[in-house]
Amino acid sequence: MRTRAMAAALAMALTLPACGGGDVPDDLDALEWSDGRGCGDVFIYWQAGTREEDHVVEVVWPGLMDQAISRGDITETLSLPAGNVQVRYRFGSYLAELNCNDVVEFDPVERRNLPAVAGTATITIVPTDDGMGQPLGEASITLTDLTFEGDDGTITLSGLTAENVQVGWLAG
Questions:
Q1: Is the confidence at residue 123, as pLDDT, over 50?
Q2: Contacts (Cβ under 8 Å, ≥6 apart) of 156
Q3: Bridge partners, 167 (sequence order)
Q4: I need a surface site. Which of 77, 78, 131, 138 has the fewest CB within 10 A?
Q5: Is residue 128 packed enough to be buried (19+ CB in 10 Å), middle (13-18) or exposed (0-12)?
Q6: pLDDT-derived band of residue 2, with 50, 70 and 90 as boundaries?
Q7: What is the end-to-end Cα distance of the chain in Å, rounded?
Q8: What residues contact 94, with CB distance under 8 A and at least 6 apart?
Q9: What are the residue ranges of helices labelled H in the chain?
């Protein structure tokens, strides 16, 4: 009985997709991307696909909101990769559940996480006032000529743009 159960478990495992794989195109331009969304200091993301087959491009640009508050409107352009600025492509299930959200409905499962190894990021932040002293701003960002790379190859994306994305705020 035990041998039969082990054989059935092995057969099932052999039919499941590999954890690192999934239906990820080599060219991410084939996907329909959402408008950019954001929060924090500074986190902006785009999403494509379904919640079960979730494609996400994320930008983490720490400290930029604080700089905009102290200096006023700010525009930065960087070639990627660049210091503590992270741009990455993630693929899995329910990944966007964690983004700018303090109520997670499903457990995310990440199958791929690839950093940008080439491309350009340009961001502008304009500080705004919510009347309550919160460090808020509107961000506009353009990513161009992105290449994401991992152990199993590279993926490209010609670009993404987001206009007037609210940043600085925190979920909760």
A1: yes
A2: 26, 27, 28, 29, 146, 147, 148
A3: 137
A4: 131
A5: middle
A6: very low
A7: 51
A8: 51, 52, 54, 105, 106, 107, 108, 109
A9: 2-15, 64-71
Distance CA 138, CA 144 (A): 20
Helix (H, G, I), strand (E, B) or coil at 65: helix
Q: Where are the beta strands (DSSP E) in 13-93?
A: 37-39, 43-49, 54-60, 74-79, 86-93
Q: What is the pLDDT of residues 43-95, one digit of tens each?
A: 999 999 988 899 999 999 999 998 998 999 999 999 999 999 999 999 999 88
Nearest Cα to 39, choosing from 154, 131, 137, 160?
137
Triad 110, 111, 116: Cα angle to 5° = 90
The answer to whether the bond into 59 is cis (omega within 30° of 0) is no
- Where b means 16+ CB within 10 Å and e means fewer, 7-32 reads eeeeeeeeeeeeeeeeebeeebeebe
C-alpha of 168 from chain center: 17
- Stated as kind and residue range, the H or E segment containing 149 is strand 136-150
Q: 112, 86, 85: which is closest to 20 by C-alpha? A: 112
